[in-house]
Amino acid sequence: MKLLRRSVKFNPIDPLGDGLGDLIERSRMHPDRIVLNEPLDGRELVRQWEAIHQDLIQDSSWFNKE
């Protein structure tokens, strides 16, 4: 008795195929992006993250679970 043999093939998964690649590209082009190509200035980095933190605190919808 001969059994039919079928092979199943799957297409490779593209982790950026769901729009993530486009989102990353837009983030890289954003004027307020943080660029670390220059020597790291710790104080400037702290100021930038503090500004981001304050924006989050002032945005009441950020932590809203609705």
Q: Which of globular, elongated, flat, extended, rod-shaped describes the shape?
A: elongated
Sheet of most strands: none
User: Which sequence of SSEs, written as H and E, runs from N to C?
Assistant: HH
Any idea what the radius of gyration is? 23 Å
Structural class: mainly alpha
SS elements, strand count: 0
Q: Work out the helicity level.
A: 40-55%
Descriptive account of the structure:
With 66 residues, this protein is mostly helical. It has a domain at 20-58. The chain has 2 helices and no strands. The protein has helices at residues 20-29, 42-58. The protein starts with 19 loop residues before the first helix and ends in an 8-residue tail after the last helix.
For the structure shown, list the relevant keywords:
single chain; mainly alpha; elongated
Summarize the structure.
The protein has 66 residues and is mostly helical.
SSE map:
Blueprint lengths: L19 H10 L12 H17 L8
